[in-house]
Automatic annotation (TrEMBL):
Gene3D superfamilies associated with the record: 1.10.40.110, Glutaredoxin
InterPro entries: Thioredoxin-like_fold (IPR012336), Thioredoxin-like_sf (IPR036249)
Protein name from the UniProt record: Protein-disulfide isomerase
GO molecular function, a single term: isomerase activity
Leader sequence residues: 1-21
Thioredoxin-like fold domain location: 44-230
Keywords noted in UniProt: Isomerase, Signal
Species for this entry: Sphingomonas glacialis
Length: 238
């Protein structure tokens, strides 16, 4: 047992008395669930969840048709949310990257067509149902494939989104069909998406998905939660 001298006790009593007498400023406490509800669109075209002043900033460049991205969303994202984002230590931003070209256009345009607050729920739903959506067994008819070779990017996106069921999927999740079709037909959004993908390739050498960027640095050979989590843990501990 540690012995405490009388002088130390007296000093401690004086400090306690002083602390009790002085007005105490209450430090605002943010509920853990609040950071999970803090969702904003970023100027770079992504959507960020979590504390905007978080010590660790994580960006994922992902594709809605990428199996590894779907695996991370299902297996890693729940742990990331409850263990890091909810505590305010890490913010997480998802940026669409069309790694599969034309196949990605429709899902991206539709996924970005919903209100910001619905971005992650729709993204999670697309990832969870990815095998069903892009795994259909029947092929695009030859005549249609030939027609698509000279079609505009928006026409291709509209057809593929319908063929693979993405349009029906977002409509069932509450997006009006007219708005879905308008987003698929928006040429400016396609041009912006292409420009942002080019910028990501130049800034972070993004060539595949998922690509994780941790505090501004792209992480090589990190594709799942098992390899990402130790890096997050180390960054938080610094």
């Amino acid at each position: 047992m540690m012995r405490v001298g009388l002088a130390a006790l007296a000093m401690g009593a004086a400090l306690v008395s002083s602390a009790q007498a002085a007005p105490q400023k209450k430090t605002p406490v943010v509920a853990r669930s609040a950071w999970l509800q803090t969702v904003v669109a970023t100027p770079e075209g992504g959507v960020r969840m979590g504390n905007p002043a978080a010590k660790v900033k994580l960006i994922e460049f992902g594709s809605r048709t990428c199996p590894l991205c779907a695996r991370f969303d299902v297996e890693g994202l729940p742990a990331l949310k409850t263990g890091y984002i909810a505590s305010g230590q890490v913010s997480y931003e998802f940026r669409d990257f069309p790694v599969h070209g034309a196949l990605d256009l429709g899902p991206i345009l539709l996924g970005q067509c919903v209100p910001t607050r619905a971005f992650f729920p729709i993204l999670d739903a697309m990832m969870a149902n990815q095998k069903t959506l892009v795994g259909r067994s029947d092929a695009i008819p030859d005549a249609k494939q030939k027609e698509l070779q000279t079609a505009t990017p928006n026409a291709i996106a509209t057809y593929l989104a319908g063929f693979y069921g993405y349009t029906d999927f977002v409509v069932k999740h509450g997006l009006p069909l007219a708005k879905a079709n308008a987003c698929l037909a928006d040429r400016k959004k396609v041009d912006t998406l292409v420009a942002r993908a080019d910028a990501a390739s130049k800034a972070y050498a993004v060539a595949g998905t998922p690509t994780f960027v941790l505090n501004g640095a792209a992480q090589a050979n990190v594709y799942d939660w098992a390899t990402l989590e130790p890096l997050l843990r180390a960054a938080v501990a610094k």
